[in-house]
């Protein structure tokens, strides 16, 4: 068959026949003839290819509508290998070869497994099953299997445990946060329950282990024992001003435990196994509570009772949020929730403070991690995207943009590292607390974005960006060509 005959068969025979059958509304026959036409068309196209291998056959059918060009997408590869600055930092502080190897393996797992799980969580947000098929109120939060797998993965990898096992002495937190730094941008927000879990363990530790069993669950590497914790503070009146906002009342029981009655307005990762929460202890006749921060005490409550029933917790609804949709955030009515008093009476806010410190550190590290991931993907894209006849990485202005992104991202990482670096000391030489440590780091780091502003980049920004690009050039093969 000649080229002309093949074209004729496709254009003049198969397609018009299929279209006519469609018009006649004989759907069964139309479909049958369409498939014949399509397979006939395919056969003809194959014949065309044989006759003229270089012909642009894609323009004949559906491809003509969307074109034949598909941009190669940026790929996530091992974030540890792709982060020379992180590796250099570790070589200085945690030089053991074993550390680098373990983190490299972890980075591989993030790229090959965790990233897909995080994506699944984004596509499958949690739902609330309020009643069972027989009409009983159950208030079960249904999460996707990927979210549950992330919980198992976190336990196996000791993402919370690392901070308490002290395998790397005073640098254990740094090691843990290096893992978190790689994990966070892929993890579908599972870092939120991990932050609260870590914070709860820290509170228990700082209070002298009033609930050893719970601590063991929170810091377990065994996925069947590992618990996550919530942090139920915010109530209807607000979240910042907890001293005025806390209306939940704790009633003392004869066995020394308490029952909580109140409404928690914003509880994230509500599929947790336990929570730390605040309430005001009522006096003996149950009618009076102490106002202000001096009336607020800290409690631990398990979400489910031993028999699998709810611990007096009604899920009013799941929040319909703008972001963080992968994770359940709920409004909860506490109606006689069994709880254990953790703090001294009236020392609730002071006692939960270390949980807030831990969660803030997670926020800082996760923010820096997100910036790092964006930069990593942009760099990969610059090696794949061609414009004006050359790859983006070969355009000096684009390289400068990437360098600026890197320098800003490093500034934020610097704040995070300042928070967790155990060797940080104040000007007087004494060890600094977490918040105090972050101040000099933040001052140094924030100089950069604040001076660069939105307009023309200032000299310091250019110098840092240039220095950073030199580091890139010397440490990353992808950019060697630019020199
Ligand atoms: C996605 C998401 C998840 C959350 N998860 C939880 C959770 O798990 N557990 C929980 O307990 N809460 C949770 N919250 C609630 C959160 O902690 C509160 O929203 C937060 O504490 C702020 O409280 P607010 O919303 O009442 O704002 P407000 O207290 O009304 O604050 C409004 C604004 O005023 C500023 N402001 C407040 N006080 C001061 C001050 N003294 N000086 C200067 N500025 C001030 C604040 O920074 C803010 O910009 C969550 C919120 C969100 C959005």
From TrEMBL:
Instruction: Please name the Gene3D superfamilies in this protein's record.
Output: 2.40.110.20, 6.10.250.600, Butyryl-CoA Dehydrogenase, subunit A, domain 3 (1.20.140.10)
Q: Does the keyword rRNA processing apply?
A: no
Q: Which domain of life is it from?
A: Eukaryota
User: What InterPro entries has UniProt attached to this entry?
Assistant: Acyl-CoA_dehydrogenase-like, Acyl-CoA_Oxase/DH_mid-dom, AcylCo_DH-like_C, AcylCo_DH/oxidase_C, AcylCoA_DH/oxidase_NM_dom_sf, AidB_N
Indicate the segments forming the Acyl-CoA oxidase/dehydrogenase middle domain, all copies: 231-335
The Gene Ontology terms for molecular function here are:
acyl-CoA dehydrogenase activity
Q: Which residues form the Adaptive response protein AidB N-terminal domain?
A: 77-221
The coenzyme or cofactor needed here is: FAD
Keywords (A to Z) from UniProt: FAD, Flavoprotein, Oxidoreductase
Q: Where is the Acyl-CoA dehydrogenase/oxidase C-terminal domain?
A: 346-415
Identify its protein family: Belongs to the acyl-CoA dehydrogenase family.
Protein name in the entry: Acyl-CoA dehydrogenase/oxidase C-terminal domain-containing protein
Which species is listed as the source? Answer: Danionella cerebrum
